[in-house]
Amino acid sequence: MARIAVGGFQHETNTFAPVKTPYEDFLVPGGWPALTRGEALFANVEGTSTPIAGAIAAGRKAGHTLVPLSWCMATPASYVTDDAFERIATMLLEELDAALAQGPLDAVYLDLHGAAVTESFEDAEGELIARVKARAGDIPVAVSLDLHANVTEGMVRDAALIDAYRHYPHIDMAETGARAMRALLRRLGTGRPWHSRFHKFPFLTAINWQCTMIEPGDTLRQMIDSLAANEDVTVAFCPGFALADIAECGPALAVYGAEQARADAVFEELRQAVEAVREDFAGTLWSPEAAIRHAMRADKPGPYVLCDTQDNPGGGGEADTTGILQALIDLDAQNALVAIIKDPEAARAAHAAGVGSDLDLELGAGTRQPGIHPVKGRFLVEQLSDGQTVGTGPMFGGNPINVGDSALLRIGGVQVLVTSRKTQVADQAILRHIGIEPKSLHILVLKSSVHFRADFQPIATEVLVVQSPGPVVADLASMPFRKLRPGVALTPVGPIHKETTQRGGGTP
Ligand SMILES: [Zn+2]
Predict the structure, then answer these.
(1) What is the mean pLDDT of residues 420-448?
(2) What is the mean pLDDT of residues 363-379?
(3) What are the backbone dihedrals phi and psi of residue 280, each rounded to the nearest 5 degrees, phi first?
(4) Relative to the CA of 107, which of 7, 163, 260, 379 has its CA 20 to 30 Å away?
(5) Measured in angstroms, how far is the CA atom of residue 179 from the centroid of ligand 1?
(6) pTM of the predicted model, to two decimals?
(7) Exposed, middle or buried by CB within 10 Å (0-12, 13-18, 19+), for 368?
(8) What's the CA-to-centroid distance between 502 and ligand 1, angstroms?
(9) In what order do the strands lie in the sheet with 358-363?
């Protein structure tokens, strides 16, 4: 029976986003369990869709002893502050020291994202794995990563194996944690390091076109499932998170296995498959006006789901841009809903005024991003809530959701769900908890890029990806990369990044 320490730290950092990520953001994340350490960790993540929950269940099922370290996650935003990272890393290492003081460990499992950037470290996860290795000694450290990880040489050097989500929407987070734990147990059984192959692809892809419910992601995901079906190899294909401007940004493939020939064969087949579909990571971006007019002209009933991808809180948006809301009002759209606009002041005012009141508001744009303005108007307060619910969809099912005091407002034919905290709108529970039936709407605007598809695509008449001003930029060729390594194409067939004017540390 093995004794295995388990912990985690998850953040996806959009280095172009307007607001940094302080320690407090890990304490009460919008759609995830709160930060915990020690024994409380097990109860805190039990029943959630997190990778660590899956890893714990798999380890216990196999009869091993699991030792809790610490775990936390924050909603994506800009750089994790040094203060936050050092407090989180110190906490995890203190728990590791305490575990080692109780007796020897056989291995460590870490639930990481893989695209965290701090003010000082471009590769925050690589730094954390290295610190764990330095403390734990010569025992394997297995890692599971998000599909959006920018996998680095440092991670591959120090981790015994890396697994990653295969689905986007990430409906397989807990399953990935379980698979990584099973791989770690097999690795312990082999008694020697596994062979590994690693490749970075020389192009970036926008998150919108990485979805595995559309091509080419669907076919690649099926290939990986098939090649790794009997779990003799561990495969991490991560298309990456291009809005983390670091040298090692971009898609990567890592394959591990006890048998070198088998790992090599799987690696080569997948590497060639990705290269062959490189140009297919592309799609149509609509303007707000064109998308709304398309939905208004349609003779089929809705909902027409417009994803406000560039303000996706899951990619570093603040859920407070107003471009699509203003266009809906200007075009006099009917039976339309925007979910969500984060505006704690407006939510407070609505709660103070009460249901049935009219409020004159300047709504949204609280983070004062350039070119983004509040929507001025008189809004009717239709519903109020404390913003607390539990996810019911394929990805967030079972997870606590806390968007703070919330209000359903109306202006003309347009409703707005106003919240106090941001979260990616990827679960129908966020709408239903305040009395909205998503299926009854004609136009439904969601602050999400892809994850909404898991719960909303099945009820959508059509999904339109809309490009309205915001920090989760879909057209990567327009972005001012500074730290990305030279030679990388900014889109699969786009311009090549030529110069790197600054290297090293994280913060601008
Ligand atoms: Zn992701």
Answers:
(1) 97
(2) 95
(3) -85, -5
(4) 260
(5) 17
(6) 0.92
(7) exposed
(8) 27
(9) 358-363, 375-385, 406-411, 414-419, 336-342, 443-446, 304-308, 462-466
